[in-house]
Every structure is written in structure tokens, then in C-alpha cells.
Amino acid sequence: MIYFDNSATTKPYPEVLETYMQVSAKIIGNPSSLHRLGDQSTRILEASRQQIADLIGKKSEEVFFTSGGTEGDNWVIKGVAFEKAQFGKHIIVSEIEHPAVKESALWLQTQGFEVDFAPVDEKGFVDVAALENLLRPDTTLVSIMAVNNEIGSIQPIEAISELLVDKPTISFHVDAVQALAKIPIEKYLTDRVDFATFSSHKFHGVRGVGFIYIKSGKKITPLLTGGGQERDYRSTTENVAGIAATAKALRLAMERLELFSNKTGQMKAVIRQALLEYPDIFVFSGEEDFAPHILTFGIKGVRGEVIVHAFEDYDIFISTTSACSSKAGKPAGTLIAMGVEKDKAQSAVRVSLDLENDMSQVEQFLTKLKLIYNQTRKVR
């Protein structure tokens, strides 16, 4: 089996699963309980929080645990909007955001908020000048992803941070789900960023766990109320085993970031060069300012899901751009926003690489690609 769908989810590290099992078996108390078993859970919880904070260069009191990226994005977009509604009801997100951000923004429109969508250029990068023109006195939130999940474009977070540096009334959120442990953290977690979203299963942690960064002094309305966990910001019994496993996964992934970048970048370059040699293949992912591990392409006249299943017949697993919307059969929203024609966008498939992949798998992939390409000659 060749697994080239690592942007959808990654395989948990063995050490991470061991941590999860050990904590699940031995740390049985609820962190909210007053007895010593509860104290044991609290110590594991707070040690994990501190480790994660250290790894992202922030303070432990700025880290709040969630169930993953979707909850984190929903919480920030809706929570900030409602918290600051008395000061303005205008928010801005980019046209290429993950559905967790975009759908949250669209829902806010039904609640009386105004939403503008910042455009992107033909390569998939947010147009900073156009974003600046959308800013208004009543703008309370700007949300831009760090790495696009469909084509891998690294968004100009540093430039947007400079744009917003003298606008303290505007909160700046970054969806960093596809960026953490993939590209250098200083590219997207700048001092100007107020909120950021992360998900464990994207960096070899377990599913169902994530965290958000909330800069000290910034306020947000809770989505979940109840027992007052997470300093009254997110009420629900904490997933202590999953959180401990997340801390372990992040440490291991961050230690391997440079190796990850070099190895996946080399594999991506080989695949990309091979794709460019085919006259009826579109390559949507560029080289400069793109994540090293994501490569999106399409075969003329062939729908993406057909290509996915063709590779699956050879035990090679890729995806049609965003895993969250692939089963809906929609064309890649990022490509449409870039001005790509709909039929081309519907052909898009995504290869997303990891350290566990190697050049022998790349060679097998390219061999099967040639077969599939020839099999689709009549369609093309």
C-alpha cells in the first residue's frame, strides 16, 4: 500500500499510540475531581498544555484544547464575531478557506453579520492589496489560512500581519491546521496573530483532539457552556489521553520538521517534473511559496474521483483536494477562486506526502500514472 493522502489525516506515531494507551489505562481520574486521581489527571493535562505552548512559542495560558480543527475554526469565527458584535458586525475571510471557516462565516450572515471574501490571484495567494480595500471601521475579524489544504499555497500571513499591525481593533485569526510541523512556525504564527487553530491528526496525533491559541488579553465567546473547564472557555471533560498524545506527537513532528521539508520537497519535485511532461495534465501547485508536501494536478477530461479510484485499484491512495468536501463531488473551491475553468477544477486530485513515503513509492506512483494516463486517452 502507498498512502499519499497525508493532508487528509496522518498515521499516528507508535510512540503517540503508546502514550495514549498508557494514559488511558493509568490516569483514570476526571481532572475536575477533587481527589488525588483527579489531581493526577490535572498534572498530565497541564504538563501537556505547557509542552505544546513551549513548542509553538506561546504561554500555557494561551492554549485551549478542542476536538479538532473544525471545532476550533467554528469557535474562533463565531466566538469572536459575537464577542465583538457591539463594536461592529463586519468580518473578512478569504475565498479559499476551509469549509469550517467559510461555512461559519456564511452562517454568521444569517445572524445579521456582514461577510466579505478576500480574493486570491491565479496562483492561489490572497491578494493583500484587495484585502486592505475590504477593511472598514466596523471590521472586527480577519481570518486567513496559513497553508491552503487543496493546493498547498502558503498564504502571506506576514504581509497581512504588517497590514493589520496598526489596526488593534481587528482580530486576526489563522487556520494553521495544514501548517503546523510542515513549514516554519514564524511564517504564520506572528506576533500580530490573535487566534490560531490546530488539529492533532494532521501531525501524527490521534483524531478528535486539537487546540487553539488565544493571545493573552483577547476575548472570545464560548461555544460550549457547562462545567467551566478550560477556564470557562470550553466546558466538557477534557480528553486527557488524547491531549497527552497530542503533546507527544507535536514534539516528535517538530523535531523532524527540517527533515520533513527536505524529504517531501524532493519527492514532490520529482513528481511535479514528471507531471509537466504530459501534454494533457494540469499542474495546479507551484514551487515557490508552496508547502513541500502538497501537489495537486488533473488529467484533461477526467473527473478527479475517477483518478482517485484508478489509483486505488493499484493500492495507491490519493484524494480529490479537500477530504472534507470530496464525497460531495464539488470542484475544488480554491481552483474556482483562482479562475480555473470548472471542468479543469473537477479533474483535480491531491497528492500529500509524509516522511514515511520514499522515492521507491514515488517511482511506483509514476509508473501507475503512466498506465492510467494511457487508459484515459479516449476520454481526453
UniProtKB/TrEMBL annotation:
Residues 2-365 form the Aminotransferase class V domain. Its EC number is 4.4.1.-. GO terms for molecular function: iron-sulfur cluster binding; lyase activity; metal ion binding; transaminase activity. PROSITE patterns: AA_TRANSFER_CLASS_5. Its cofactor is pyridoxal 5'-phosphate. This is Aminotransferase, class V. Keywords: Aminotransferase, Iron, Iron-sulfur, Lyase, Metal-binding, Pyridoxal phosphate, Transferase. It is an enzyme of class 4 (lyase). Belongs to the class-V pyridoxal-phosphate-dependent aminotransferase family. NifS/IscS subfamily. It comes from Streptococcus infantis ATCC 700779.
